[in-house]
Structures are given as structure tokens and as C-alpha cells.
Amino acid sequence: MSVKNLKKELEKVVTENTIKVLYLCSEAAEKLSLRLFLIGGAVRDIITGKDNFDTDITVQGNAIEFAHLLEQNYPNICKIKEIHESFGTVKVVFALSNEEIELDIASTRKESYPYPGSLPKVDEIGCDLYYDVKRRDFSINSMALSLNKENFGVLTDYLGGYDDIQQKKIRVLHEKSFVDDPTRIIRALKFRVRFGYELEENTKNLQENCLESGMFDNFCGERIKSELKQTFNLNKADAMEIFIRENIYRLADKDIKISEILSKSCESTILKYFEYINPDFIWLIYLGVLLSDFSKEKIAHITQKLYLSGMETNILMEAKTLLEKTDCGLTNFEVYEFFEGFMPKSILICLIKKPELKEKVDLYLKELKNIKIHTTGETLINLGLKPGPAFGEILRKLLKARINGEIFSEEEEKEFLKKILR
Ligand code: ATP
Q1: Shared domain check, 362 and 391
Q2: Which of 221, 224, 305, 340 is a good FRET partner for 166, with 20 to 30 A between their CA atoms?
Q3: Which amino acid residue places its CA nearest to atom 13 of ligand 1?
Q4: Could you tell me the pTM of the whole model?
């Protein structure tokens, strides 16, 4: 096998400060004669030329000891931020003159799965690099790049990750991979959609067998949520199509049934109304559409199993409430009242399911939602009125007149107010 040195590629995608920090680590590793590597997704991204990745480093040995040495060696610029003893991982921060660089440093570790779908158990810390890469998800994420002085930039690729990147293939590292950790099925989906890669044939069969076994129906859980979030936040119709077509949805809930056609509509609606959505919440629109045919009880059950926060659950519940409402009305104020108080994300879930509401959603989001009146409770007090329930009614009447276009200017509003008060 030929030796690949990716130093140039590395220098192309990381900042000068990150390179500086990597060299500082390299010097420190020299003192302890430790083997030091950049590992996982970072190496994949260097090969594919993508910048802005997490700088994950692995020490063949004890990362925590190594981090203490870094602190001793560079007392003015290096600080340990977090230590996770049981996994042998540590986060350090380098404060350079103009930037802070964070590094996640892990000890090499060997892992096993006590039962299918369990969290991994750490069997050995400081093992040979081979066992550390063997525990990983896919060949494309199993490569290491040496940071040691004598071979800085040399690639270690025990499992054929480099070729799989060239061939755009996602390949698991052993036959039990998906059974050990079914969240990898969604991770594979994420990488397929993000990079336009395909499942390698045997991996595809293993995925099919794993899902067909029904072992992980309704598996849910926090890690599934995290992967779903990353996958659907890409806003690619393909992700939802594959999710349904290849039965991956069964991991969230085996009863999900929805036409693939809506996936395109999800993607285009999100693009069209992008200004109304925080990109971190895109996935909830996909999830809301996927769950929208279920009852509220069932939605609540699934959101609980996926560890959705109160706010995330609300978005899905509100979408369901909106979908159950029937008559939107014709006047501007009726449209306003129909959507009033609903979050744009819930409104968009409803729109994807009921495209006939498009004109009204546009009217509400682009115009009606932003209409404000000038009169406030204070105005009414200044006019000599006593605060009470009538205030709400008066302000509502003004808003209705304003939204229905009966009044426009502040002057017209004052006139209208006088009329009401009379
Ligand atoms: P991204 O660009 O989406 O962050 P990443 O590959 O860096 O991709 P992380 O979730 O940060 O993803 O994981 C870092 C590395 O840890 C991966 O590259 C992979 O080697 C390993 N890894 C992550 N999740 C798993 C898993 N479920 N099973 C095995 N290895 C995993």
C-alpha cells in the first residue's frame, strides 16, 4: 500500500492558528513519545476538501495525561476545559493572540456493545490505533492522520476509507455494526444525503436486515433525535424520501405512513419561507409532517420517546391543532384570527399538508402578522377611561378595523377610536 501524505491538503483546509496549535501538540507528544493523530470526520473532510470541521485528535495512550502535559508546557496559552475520565477524553483550549482554538482530545479506546442497541462499553483505554478505528461507524470516518514530527500528515487507513471516498460509498466496518448501534442507519442517511454517496451493497443488505428484523421498531431515544436533527436540517427532500422508502422511519415509529411526494414540498416550502425559520429547527418541520396523521396522544408519545423539549413538542402539537381547524374565513381579520398565536414552523407544517392555504399563509406571514395599532392601554387611560376588560375589546376592535383596511393612518385610528367610545 502506498504511503499518502496529506499535509498539504490539511494546510489548505485549516486556519493558520489551528496548524500552529497542531504543531504545539506535536512537539508535546514528542516528549512523551506518544503517537498522535487527527481522526474521524476531520480526516474525511480534509480528503474531500471541506473546511470548518471539529478538530478531533486521538492519542494512542492517555489523553488526559497528555492534556496535563500540554498545560504544563504551554501554561500561558493552554487550559483544560473539560475532562471525561470514563471515556478518557478531554477538551483543551488554546488562547492565541487573536483567537481561541478548541481541541477535543481522546485516548484510543476499544469498545463493545453489551446488547443490541445499547450504549458502548469501554473495554480498554490507550489501545492500539487499529482497535480505535475498528469501533467506528463507517470506513470514511475511520481514518487517522499522523501529527507526529517524523511523519506529520501521513494517512493511516486500515479499513479502506480513502477508496470508499473516491467511490462515494458508505461502508460499515463489520456485519453487526447496525445491530450494535442502529443510530448508524440514520448517520449513514446523513452522509448519503450530505455528500451524495451511496450505501455499499453489503451495507445496504445489513441495513435492510436490521430494519426488517423489527428489533429496533420504535427505538427512538436521544441519539436518534440528534441524528434525525442533523439529517433533516440539511433540508434535502432525498433524506425524507429515503427515510420512508427504506423503512428507516421504523426506528422512530413503525406506523409512520406518508407519501414521498410531500418530501419535495417540504424542501421547497422551507426554502421559500426560510426567513421565518431558524435553520436549527428545519428538522421539526419534516418531523411534524411525518407525524401529522397521528392523533395528538400518539404525537405526544413519540415526542417524549425522542426527548423533544417542551418547545419542540409545542411546534408539532400546534401544527396538529391548526390542521384540525376547518374554516379559515375570508376577511383579512378572519385569516388573522385563524393563524394568530401559531409559530411560523407550525404554520408551515400545516401548509405542506394543505397547500390550498398558500394564499392565506402568505397574507398572514407577510402582512397581517406585522400589523400593529398605535393605541395602547396608556392611550385609553390618558383619555380618562378606567382600566378593565373593555380595554381589550376596544383594542381588538381597532386591530380588526386596521387589519380589514378600514383605517390606515394614526389620524384615522384616532377618529375610529372616538367613534367607538361614543
Ligand atoms: P459531522 O461532520 O456530521 O460532525 P463526524 O463524522 O465528525 O461528522 P461526529 O458525530 O462528530 O461526526 O463523530 C466523530 C467521529 O466519531 C465520527 O467520524 C466517527 O468516526 C465516530 N462516530 C460517531 N458516531 C458514531 C457511532 N454511532 N458509532 C461509531 N462511531 C461513531
Answers
A1: no
A2: 224
A3: 41
A4: 0.93
Average pLDDT over residues 349-354: 96
Q: Whose CA is nearest to atom 11 of ligand 1?
A: 41
Alpha carbon distance, N-terminus to C-terminus of the chain: 92
Tell me the C-alpha distance between 395 and 377, whole Å. Answer: 8
CA 292 to each of CA 249, 305, 379: distance values in angstroms, whole numbers, following the listed order: 14, 17, 44
The count of structural domains within the chain is 3
Question: Measured in angstroms, how far is the CA atom of residue 354 from the centroid of ligand 1?
Answer: 37
pLDDT computed for residue 1 by the predictor: 61
Residues 321 and 391 in one domain: no
Q: Residues near ligand 1 with C-beta < 6 Å?
A: 40-41, 54, 56, 136-137, 141, 181, 183-184, 187, 230
179 located within any domain: no
Q: Which residue range(s) make up the domain with 108?
A: 7-167
What CATH number has the domain bearing residue 263?
A: 1.10.3090.10
- 305 with 245, same domain: the answer is yes
Please identify, among 167, 201, 229, the residue that sits at the C-terminal boundary of a domain: 167
